[in-house]
């Protein structure tokens, strides 16, 4: 009987007894330990780096041979103290530490501490194989020998892989060019979708968030999970209509309207792909996998589906399940075998973008009640925990985006984004996008001279209305009053306006502006309340505000205005582009795809339009801040320091100390 | 407890006890009885016709209601004595006979009695479903409700079907056009590939045999299995080279050569599709399924694979397994969801055509030894039984096709196809394609006046050489002799020729022609002998001669010349276009596809080029008829009646009586 030894792997803790002289990578595989490898133990890829320590006397492992010292082609350098697991033979009892970078299911650390790390385990993988040459004495096709090699050198089940028919013309020349050593891409353990001569370790993916206004794309290294380029562009569909509903109308009015819009968005995604590749200095043909998220109308138009049904009740989606489709069918110029994964939609107004945001913010994972809100023309709202998750959309209208506001504009340089109104003098100060200075600080005028002060954006109007309320110039019913207190309040027909900046044209907050914000915030709040009713909770533990608006808005003012329910302010966070993050997560992890598909199946869809309580909540939420609910945390918010110049973070900390 | 009754189905013999009042179609499904239905029990499709007989007193079944008498839209009439199973309720013990036309796995009777009938069970099926309308109170997509309907109304596993992404844009308009009743095509129990409003029962398929010279296509009704149109055209690749090897050379000499030839054949198949549809009065968009067979080079060019590797040793196929590919990828204008199935190849010189011929002629099914030969530039040879099957190809060259023969030509009007030489006078008679008369019969000249006598085709040269041998003008070594016996033998350089027709130019059999035939027949015979050696048999029980040449050749002469091994002549048959039949079988039956895939995996491939014995057999087979083997049946063949005018069939019967 051969001598044996004990081998222990960390961090998994897996251990076992193997014959002396066993290769460490082989031992890992026998024991089910997760060590990465593309080259299959040939000292080429450098993915299987481990650190090795003996637990007995004498040499614990074979010394580094030429394969590690001179032959190893270090695409990645051999880290200090590391060995290639595939080149080490165990000689005595051994401890083997597998660093995260050598694990197949490694994690990418995300910046925000409160969200879980992303698992990097993409559905496409590269395998280096050495294929036996054709032999007249044993007739078999190049395809068959390729699959046999994959089965022998990687996984027996790969004998059953399908080779993409479109790949067949490339098989023979590439095998011969690579002298019978090739790297293949295997998609989802089902199909061979790419082949390259020799060893290859480059595998890229792209994640897209198709918004009504902008399209954002990220290019990632699928092996490391790193973002190597990011870019965005305007959605060219804007020429068919500014907002979603006008695009639906365009498709209803024009027989080829939907096709035109489909062609426009696909071409834009194509340009963005090229832009990303150029930025990263790679070829689009290196891109093997793509993911897409978008609201239901963008989702349908991307897939060539006329969105007209989404424009009228009952708002039926053509498809809600995830869609898997070859990139070439969408006319995208990536690798010929590249696949597209379009994340699932939740409901007629709750799209793949909301599903992706949930994948990123994980309301379905925690035991506390999380509220996840993405505000646009419709607010997409998800509420719940691992026990139960609800989703709805609420028709907030475009006011939060600065539309339908007298001095409103998109968030762009020159737009007022922060507002303070002195409680005593009732004079305003503000900040505009593009400048770090407040309007009453020295040098402000110079700092904005390139673009001027051109209007007020969504977060600006929120703060303006909230500050006017806190200063007593807007009443709990939303009426503008106080003409006798400050000349900034001036008559405007039968109502009043507050002049923020007396330019030409002036920037004013009109009564109609306050009403628009009241309607929008009431719709948002009513949607949230409706879900709270369904979930039978009186408070939420945590709030995540997703999207551009959610990133710019100051949660303090959102709560002061009664947009969101009462919550500990330290637990209200901007989630950034959560939809885009979800697209990236689905790009990097097959398990995440199964996760979001299950989430979408299990989430309870609430249609606000058919719920009588929605109207009740809506009416109740018109007041400022609210008239139907208790707000333990709101009290401190309403006790805001007067026109503080502190950034919100400082103020938030102060509030916490008081609490 | 409810009253029950006994119900028995024939011909399956399945029986069971069901509650009184049970619907007969439901009872059949419960008991696993095979009854067809497209409409799912709605008295629309008429597929479930059965005859019903009571086994007790009183009324045995519910009387025909309006659904059967007035409402039933008889796409097929209700047969005499038949009821729609879906409309009958069982009242007493019942006998239900399910005629073949109402069985899902029905059979198409083939013309030749010796081959098995074809099972009609295509991989694509139509299902009529009633889909629930969208409802704002219960949000779900049209896709989801369609799959739910398929699962509820047809098969629970259909909840997991994938809807082809390319079909998604059509889903919503078709569901609404059909008022939520649609017919869908389900491919291979995996994907929804088509959708039509309302009820639909038309489902077509096309089977193609892509030959080097001609392309043949058949259009079939996939429900009945009937051929509704057949057509053929020249393979336009001929402009790149007459034979296979010249086309391989073309691809080697021209960088885009293979692509040109791929485009040519795909365009020809497209034209043929249109031609077939026009002939049958249908639209190409009704075609849901296509199958293709061809030799390895045609197979590769159809799939866009450069065939150059097939031109030089070791003759490696790019792919041998069956290829499944959307028709649109091949640029074919069928239904957008149409799928193509390309039958598997066996080896570098034994293609999908040979596999298809085996599927049709079933050498792998019987217990006797069958020899299946398809003669072209290469002879594809299969030999064996259900116990063991071998395949090889033999380089016969083009002589059997009339090429490399001094007066040779393709089989076309004006070509000599039958030859007799009077044993005494040594004068010839012959028949030409396009005329039913022998050349010495009255009216022959008029009957051929439209095209004249232009040359000699493959079967004609076989008979000519064999008759010259039987008349003693060609010796066992193949030398032409007898210049002193008849003026038809004339010097031709240092050898002699026999003049068949003294026209301008004359039609002669030269010494070089005899040598070409000797080489070709020796190659064929040596290939067969090699397989007989491998199988360790001294004789074959049955011979099938496939292809055009096999249909035209008289087996008597083939044996007299020593092309084929000794065999009872009553068991030598032309198999017609066996490859085309195989394409049809694979079109009609999913089980046949699995059958041919297994056959191709299990057949033993013998490469003649690396077998030393092949050369030995080849040399030994150069003589006429043979010099290395005993021929119990050949004796009677060589005792042929002199220059008989009997058709081969009469003569064969006579031989049988003698035996």
Give a structural overview.
Two copies of one chain form a homodimer. In chain A, 29% of the residues lie in helices and 23% in strands. Chain A has 659 residues and is an alpha/beta fold. In chain A, the strands form seven sheets. A six-stranded mixed sheet of chain A has the order 14-13-12-15-17-16, sandwiched between helices. In chain A, strands 28-27-18-19-20-29 form a six-stranded mixed sheet, sandwiched between helices. In chain A, helix 8 crosses helix 15, helix 11 packs across helix 16 and helix 14 crosses helix 15. Chain A is elongated and about 100 Å long. The C terminus of chain A is likely disordered.
Task: Tag the structure with descriptive keywords.
homodimer; 659 residues; alpha/beta; six-stranded mixed beta sheet; 29% helix; disordered C terminus
- Biggest chain-to-chain interface with counts: A-B, 44 and 44 residues
- C-alpha Rg of chain A (nearest Å): 29 Å
Strand content of chain A: 15-25%
Note the total helix count of chain A: 18
Strand order of the largest sheet of chain A: 14-13-12-15-17-16
The tally of beta strands of chain A, per DSSP, is 29
| Average pLDDT score of chain A | 88
Q: Indicate the structural class of chain A.
A: alpha/beta
In whole angstroms, the N-to-C terminal distance of chain A is 71 Å
The major pleated sheet of chain A works out as: 6 strands, mixed
């Amino acid at each position: 009987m051969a001598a044996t030894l004990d081998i222990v792997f960390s961090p998994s803790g897996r251990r076992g007894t193997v014959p002396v002289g066993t290769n460490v990578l082989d031992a890992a595989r026998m024991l089910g330990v997760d060590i990465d490898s593309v080259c299959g133990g040939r000292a080429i890829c450098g993915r299987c780096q481990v650190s090795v320590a003996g637990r007995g006397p004498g040499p614990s492992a074979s010394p580094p041979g030429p394969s590690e010292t001179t032959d190893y082609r270090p695409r990645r350098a051999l880290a200090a103290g590391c060995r290639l697991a595939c080149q080490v033979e165990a000689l005595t009892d051994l401890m083997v530490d597998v660093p995260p970078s050598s694990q197949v299911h490694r994690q990418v650390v995300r910046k925000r501490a409160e969200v879980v790390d992303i698992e990097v385990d993409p559905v496409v993988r590269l395998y280096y194989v050495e294929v036996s040459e054709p032999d007249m004495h044993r007739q078999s096709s190049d395809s068959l020998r390729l699959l046999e090699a994959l089965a022998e050198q990687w996984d027996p089940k790969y004998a059953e892989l399908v080779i993409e028919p479109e790949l067949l013309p490339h098989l023979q020349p590439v095998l011969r060019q690579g002298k019978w050593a090739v790297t293949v891409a295997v998609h989802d353990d089902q199909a061979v979708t790419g082949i390259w001569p020799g060893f290859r370790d480059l595998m890229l993916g792209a994640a897209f968030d198709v918004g009504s206004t902008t399209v954002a794309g990220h290019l990632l290294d699928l092996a490391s999970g790193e973002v190597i380029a990011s870019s965005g562009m305007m959605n060219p569909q804007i020429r068919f209509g500014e907002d979603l509903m006008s695009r639906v109308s365009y498709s209803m009015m024009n027989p080829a309207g939907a096709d035109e819009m489909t062609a426009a968005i696909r071409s834009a995604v194509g340009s963005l792909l090229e832009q990303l590749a150029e930025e990263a200095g790679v070829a689009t043909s290196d891109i093997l996998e793509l993911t897409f998220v978008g609201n239901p109308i963008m989702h349908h138009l991307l897939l060539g589906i006329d969105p007209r049904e989404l424009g009228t009740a009952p708002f039926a989606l053509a498809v809600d399940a995830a869609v898997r489709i070859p990139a070439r069918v969408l006319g995208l110029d990536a690798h010929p075998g590249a696949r597209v994964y379009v994340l699932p939609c939740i409901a007629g107004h709750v799209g793949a973008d909301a599903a992706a945001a949930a994948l990123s913010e994980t309301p379905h994972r925690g035991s506390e009640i999380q509220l996840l809100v993405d505000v646009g023309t419709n607010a997409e709202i998800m509420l719940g925990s691992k026990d139960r998750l609800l989703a709805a959309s609420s028709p907030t209208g475009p006011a939060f985006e600065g539309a339908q506001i007298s001095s409103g504009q998109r968030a762009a340089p020159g737009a007022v984004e922060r507002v303070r109104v002195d409680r005593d003098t009732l004079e305003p100060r503000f900040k505009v996008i593009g400048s770090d200075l407040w309007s009453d600080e020295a040098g402000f005028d110079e700092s904005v001279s390139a673009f001027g002060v051109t209007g007020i954006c969504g977060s600006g109007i929120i703060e303006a209305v909230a500050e006017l309320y806190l200063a007593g110039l807007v009443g709990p019913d939303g009426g503008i009053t106080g003409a006798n207190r400050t000349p900034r309040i001036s008559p405007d027909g039968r109502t009043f306006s507050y002049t923020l900046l007396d330019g030409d044209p002036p920037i004013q907050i009109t009564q109609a502006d306050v009403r628009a914000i009241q309607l929008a915030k009431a719709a948002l709040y009513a949607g949230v309340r409706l879900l709270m009713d369904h979930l039978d909770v009186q408070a939420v533990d945590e709030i995540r505000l997703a999207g551009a608006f959610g990133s710019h808005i100051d949660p303090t003012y959102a709560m002061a205005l009664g947009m969101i329910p009462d919550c500990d302010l330290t637990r209200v966070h901007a989630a950034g582009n959560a939809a885009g993050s979800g697209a990236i997560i689905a790009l990097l992890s097959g398990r995440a795809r199964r996760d979001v598909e299950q989430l979408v199946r299990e989430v309870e869809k609430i249609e606000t339009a058919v719920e009588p309580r929605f109207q009740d909540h809506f009416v109740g939420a018109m007041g400022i801040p609210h008239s139907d609910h208790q707000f333990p945390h709101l009290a401190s918010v309403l006790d805001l320091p007067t026109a503080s110049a502190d950034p919100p973070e400082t103020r938030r900390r102060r509030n916490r100390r008081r609490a």
